[in-house]
Specification:
single chain; three-stranded antiparallel sheet; 6% strand
């Protein structure tokens, strides 16, 4: 059902109710994907104006290109239409440029841009691209530092460890022959050790010549997506590495985000009471919802039933809130913040927010399974 202003309204007050709120929300987002595809053509959407819905686009997708490909694969899985599958495959093929670029965000681009292509019937080109990406990322691994460095593709120092260099890269590395699993585990645990060394977690660290790490000022502690990216990386690690010791890190991150007073949709930059003065970041909430649902499935499979139930409730609460409060009449997830420090797209629709929101809804409705990716 929809409110007078067009936002999706569930017929019950809680996400655990029986109302069909997730299905209509997913349908609305996928309708928006179809309109976006018509608008952007062969370019990649990045963020959209909240009033006009017009997208700012990039030619190669930047670090978010895999999210656009992932949205097209979700549309194809939902519709079953050959033309939708062909459009998703063409988009994924264009991500090949990033295979040899020096950036840890290859995980976001080349894992999330290819993993959903492994659905019924598979896509051989996407699988081949994923294999090339895995080998390239392993070749970039720096064993003395225990990370695939942030890289120089977007400028700045190369030897950084950043929370947004974790998601997607863990499963990519884990699938690379010849030491990939070891590199994936060390990459993940190095980032967890650094980021969780401070409270709130510090998202970025720079390698010093003496072998130690120095805290970076940007992104600052309190950045909305720090815990979200790390949680997604931990879920990837538990799924693809089978390291049960990662549950401790998962517990710390979940406790941080579900503590009394923690906002269900976090402020883009916390650091003052309830993030006063900062816009919300629905993209961070959407990432957390996916991580929570994946962790819930992993917990239940590991015999951690009560923990899994709590994670499932948290993930569903986030999706329910996003669907009821932040979803526009035309299927755009509003109130995402690209970069609060620069006031860049502070209350916009973000392509990665749409992707993780749609993926979470696809998990909630059963369109995809938790262990697909």
């Amino acid at each position: 059902m929809r409110k007078a202003d067009g936002t999706v309204r569930a017929a019950t007050d809680t996400a655990s109710g029986t109302a069909d709120w997730a299905g209509p929300a997913l349908a609305a987002v996928l309708e928006r994907v179809a309109r976006t595809a018509d608008q952007v053509g062969a370019r990649f959407p990045l963020y959209a104006d909240p009033k006009t819905g017009e997208w700012t686009t990039t030619g190669r997708g930047s670090w978010t290109g895999g999210c656009w490909a992932g949205l097209l694969w979700l549309r194809a899985l939902s519709s079953g239409a050959p033309e939708d599958r062909a459009a998703a495959a063409r988009c994924t093929e264009r991500l090949g440029y990033w295979t040899d670029q020096d950036t840890a965000t290859r995980g976001l681009v080349l894992w999330y841009g290819t993993a959903l292509a492994a659905g019924p019937g598979g896509d051989e080109a996407a699988a081949a691209l994923r294999g090339r990406a895995a080998r390239a990322c392993l070749a970039a691994y720096e064993p003395e530092w225990g990370v695939v460095p942030w890289g120089a593709a977007f400028g700045g120092p190369r030897l950084l460890a950043r929370a947004d260099g974790v998601p997607g890269l863990v499963p990519l590395l884990a699938g690379a022959p010849g030491g990939g699993r070891t590199a994936a585990y060390r990459h993940l645990t190095r980032h967890l050790a650094l980021c969780l060394a401070e409270d709130p977690p510090r998202p970025a660290w720079r390698a010093r010549p003496d072998g130690t790490w120095a805290a970076c000022a940007e992104p600052a502690p309190g950045w909305s997506r720090t815990a979200a990216w790390l949680l997604l990386g931990v879920a990837d690690g538990l799924r693809h590495l089978g390291e049960s010791g990662l549950w401790e890190a998962a517990g710390r991150l979940v406790a941080l985000r579900t503590a009394p007073g923690a906002a269900l949709v976090p402020p883009a930059q916390d650091g003052s009471p309830a993030g006063a003065g900062h816009p919300p970041d629905t993209s961070a909430a959407a990432i957390e919802a996916v991580a929570a649902l994946k962790l819930a499935a992993l917990a239940r499979a590991a015999g951690r039933g009560s923990e899994g139930d709590a994670l499932m409730r948290w993930g569903e609460r986030i999706l329910h809130r996003l669907s009821g409060t932040h979803l526009s009449p035309k299927g755009a997830l509003r109130d995402g913040c690209y970069d609060a420090a620069r006031s860049l797209a502070p209350r916009h629709e973000l392509v990665w927010g749409d992707f993780f929101f749609a993926w979470g809804l696809a998990l909630r409705t059963g369109l995809v399974e938790p262990f697909t990716m």
